[in-house]
Every structure is written in structure tokens, then in C-alpha cells.
Amino acid sequence: MLNFRPLLFILGVFLSTLTAFMFIPLLFALLYGEETVGAFMIASLVTGTCASACMHQGQSENIRLNIRDMFLLTSLTWFIVSLFAAMPFTLYHGINYTDAFFETMSGITTTGSTVLSGLDTMDHSILIWRSLLQWLGGIGFIVMAVAILPFLNVGGMRLFRTESSDWSDKAVPRTQDMAKHLFYVYILLTIACGLAYHLAGMTWFQAINHAMTTLSTGGYSTSDSSMAAFSKPAHWVGTLFMAAGGLPLLMFVHSLSQKSLRIWDDAQVKGYLVFLAFVSCSLAFWLYHGHDMTAADALRLASFNVVSVVTTTGYGLTDYTSWGAVANVAFLFLMFAGSCSGSTSGGIKIFRFQIAIAIMREQLKQQFHPNGIFKERYNGRPITEDIVRSLVTFILLFMLVIVLLSVILVSTGLDPTTSFTGAVTAVTNVGPGLGPVIGPAGNFSSLPDIAKWSLAIGMLLGRLEILTVAVLFHPNFWKY
Fold first, then answer.
1. Terminal-residue alpha carbon distance, the chain
2. How far apart are CA 82 and CA 380, in angstroms?
3. How confident is the model at residue 24 (pLDDT cuts 50, 70, 90)?
4. pLDDT score of 201 more than 70
5. Strand partners, 382
6. 378 - beta bridge partners?
7. Separation of alpha carbons 222 and 205, rounded Å
8. Model-level pTM?
9. What is the 3-state secondary structure (H, E, C) of the chain?
């Protein structure tokens, strides 16, 4: 039976946290004398009141959650928080709620697709709110990926199950400690990124905003030109910290406790870094010989854009769709990749590709030696049948959602390129698609409302690894 009272209480806690963070853009609005003061005051009042009501109605001496509660809570929290977080946007200069919700869902899921323009002259409070949404969404997903998804065995993530993934009474303090340590490391990396951006020529306001959206691999910028508005050193800073955002944050926590950054001990991290280096260097070599640019510029542009897409950050530096058919095909496939589990990025994730290769290798051995017994391992752990089933189910659902979303978008009158790449970029949480409408040089403002709502749901499905939401639609989930 679902425990609605604890769910209501925890939802109230999340809404109260959102209310507290609304005071940050409110302070910016007061500091700069902006008209958004009223918008953030109303939004914080409404959100805070609803948070108090939820906590009061759901108050209980003993909060215990079973596996069904966790599935429902995970999906419900992200959706309802987005509904309330959209309020400042819709109260700002009359932005309609569809655009407000799209912008918010894109922010919280760290997708980075936007319907807003005129960012260079936009109110500071709105810009900082967009960045905060991505920053909060980033740490929220990390905690979920480390503590919840392995416990729920979503998409083969049981391989990454730790003691913090156990929601028994004894494990709850460990889970809380792990979340606290992850949060501290996340803050330290954000500060380091902000300082580096400032040294690279950004103002403090620009540096703070971009630090939050870089570490969260979200991609929101303070300029319509995105990172093209800033210096070449800033591009390298962005490349470095986007790559860091694609690493498992738990690795940094362990490294600080052990005072040693042992990157090559993890097969996933090793595969991720080798993949980034190989693709970046290959594309840089192709740009240098096929386009009129220096080797340094070719490496900078290739590295930044490859890391931006693979980590699903989605920053724009140049319109790479103008590099030709080879680049278009390459970036389309890179959209699917993702980086590491336990990071802020979306996508399929590197470890799933590695497991698929291991399974293929095992199957090939079986073909040559039918009577042999072969058991592949990943990071020292056996790849069990339930992990394989979970992985296959995830991949099939992942592709099915993209196909269905593409069909919905085409039916709204959008062209095939916009429809397909829009579906891909939403579900993988990359941000920009391909083509003249939603490519790196465009945005999503011209899309029909039904397309925006569909893409927003696609972003949520991708962020929550699809299975977390899909299980809610199974009849057995609601039977008992």
C-alpha cells in the first residue's frame, strides 16, 4: 500500500527548499531595482504556503518508504517542483505558462533547451533563477543516481549500488552522510569553476551563472550567443569543468577522503575520458585539414563542442551543423552517448555501452565454444541476468520514447529533422537539436505549445531514466 502521508511530507520539504532558494533571485531583484520583485515574492509566498500545508498534513512520527513509494516520490517530486518553479517565469513580463514550464523543466532536468531570447539584457534575477534551477537539478540527480536508482535497479544501475543505496533504517544515516558529502564537493567544484571563469575574463555575475550551469551540465547562459560571447580561455575552462561534471561525483568524494584521485581504477571513467579524447582529437584533425582554421582553434572548437554534447551540457560556441555532413552525423550519435553514471549528465551513459560490448563479447565466445561457461564482469562485479534484463528494457524504452515523441512532433507540423533531433535532445537532456529551428544557433520558442509540453515530458522521462516513470503506468503498481 502506498504511504501517502510520508510522500506528502517529503514533497513539502522539497517545496520549502525551493521557497528558500527563491529568495536568492529576489535579493538580486531588490539589489538591481528590477520589476521581478513582485513575481518572486508571490511565487515564494504561494510555494511556501503549499509546502507548509503538505508538511502539516503529512506529518508522521515514523516515515518509512517502500520501493513503490520511492518510484512515485521520484517522479512526483520532479514534476510538482517544476510546476511551482515555473511561477516566476510566468509572472515575468507575461510569459505564458507553457513557455514558463518548458523553461523550468529544461532547467531542472539540466537539459538547457530554451524559449527565451534577449538574455544579454534580461533581468539579473531571472538569469540567476535559470542558473539556480540547473544547479539544483544537477545535485538532485546525482543524489538520486547514487542513492535511489541503484536501489530500484533502473537500467542496469544495480552495478553501482552502495550501502547508501539501501533504504533500511540502518542505511538512512549513511545515505544522509553521502548526500551531505556530495553536496559539499559539488559546492567546492562550483566555486573553483566560478573563480576560473572570472580569471578567464567573465564578470563575477557571468562567472557565477556559468559555474552553476557548467557543473550541472545544464548549458544555460547569460548571453544569446552562449559561450561564443566570451574569451578563448573561458572556452577551455568550460571544457575542463563540463568534463568534470560528466565524472561520477562520488569519485571526488572518495578521492578527498583517500587524498588520491585514482581515475583509472574505474572502467567507466577510463572509457569516458578515452572516448572524449579520441572523438575530440579526430574531429579536430578533420577540421584542421578540411576547414580554414589553425590547429589550436580546431582543437578548441572540437573539444568544447564534443564535451558539451557528450556531457549533455549543450552550450553553444559555434554552429557545428555548418561543418558539413560528417559533423552532423557525428554529433547526432554523440547526443545519445552521455557520460558517467553518478554525474549530472543525461543520455544513455558510457557504462551501458561498455556492458553491451561485454555481453556481445560473451556471446561471441559462446558461439565458438557452445559448451563453455563464460561470465563477464564489470568493474570487478559480475554482470547478472537481472542487470542484463534491466539494461535491455531501458534501451528499448529509451528508443521507443524517442520514436513516439518524434511522431508527436511531426504531427504538429514540424519538419522531420526538427522532430527527430528535438525528441533525441529532450530525452538525452542535451539541449540544442539539429537544423535551422532548434539547432545551436536557434531556440524552441517558435514550436507549437503541444510540442513544448511533449518535449518537457520527454526531458523528465530522460532525466529519470524512463523506467522510473514507466513503472507507474503498469496496472500492478496500483493494485495493492
1. 5
2. 39
3. very high
4. yes
5. 377
6. 381
7. 9
8. 0.91
9. CCCHHHHHHHHHHHHHHHHHHHHHHHHHHHHCCCCCHHHHHHHHHHHHHHHHHHHHHCCCCCCCCCHHHHHHHHHHHHHHHHHHHCHHHHCCCCCCHHHHHHHHHHHHCCCCCCCCCCHHHCCHHHHHHHHHHHHHHHHHHHHHHHHHHHHHCCCCHHHHCCHHHCCCCCCHHHHHHHHHHHHHHHHHHHHHHHHHHHHCCCCHHHHHHHHHHHHCCCCCCCCCCHHHHCCHHHHHHHHHHHHHHCCCHHHHHHHHHHCCCCHHHCHHHHHHHHHHHHHHHHHHHHHHHHCCCCHHHHHHHHHHHHHHHHCCCCCCCCCHHHHCHHHHHHHHHHHHHCCCCCCCCCCCCHHHHHHHHHHHHHHHHHHHCCCCCCCCEECCEECCHHHHHHHHHHHHHHHHHHHHHHHHHHHCCCCHHHHHHHHHHHHCCCCCCCCCCCCCCCCCCCCCHHHHHHHHHHHHHHHCCCHHHHHHHCHHHHCC
With b meaning 16 or more CB within 10 Å and e meaning fewer, what string describes 187-213? eebbebbbebbbebebeeebbbbbbbb
Read off the pLDDT of residues 387-408 as tens digits, 9 standing for 90 and up. Answer: 888 888 899 999 999 999 999 9
Closest CA to 74 of 440, 466, 479: 466
- Write out pLDDT tens, residues 101-124: 999 999 999 999 999 989 999 999
Residue range 7-19: mean pLDDT, rounded: 91
Res 174: pLDDT: 65
Sequence-ordered list of residues with C-beta below 8 angstroms from that of 219, at least 6 positions apart, any chain: 110, 111, 112, 134, 213, 226, 308, 313, 314, 315, 431
Give the per-residue pLDDT at 67. Answer: 79
Residues 6 or more apart whose CB falls under 8 angstroms from that of 399 comprise none
pLDDT in tens, 43-64: 999 999 999 999 888 777 666 7
pLDDT in tens, 323-360: 888 888 889 899 999 899 888 898 899 999 998 888 88
Whether the CA torsion 104, 108, 109, 115 is positive or negative: it is positive
Among candidate residues 86, 73, 106, 85, the one with its CA nearest the CA of residue 17: 85
Report the C-alpha gap between 390 and 399 in whole angstroms: 14
Cell of 109: 532536468
Range with the largest mean pLDDT of 20-24, 141-145, 326-330, 440-444 = 20-24
Question: Cα angle vertex 403, ends 397, 406, to 5°?
Answer: 140
Rounded Cα gap, residues 67 and 81, in angstroms: 21
- Say what the pLDDT of residue 205 is: 96
Residue 167: predicted pLDDT: 46
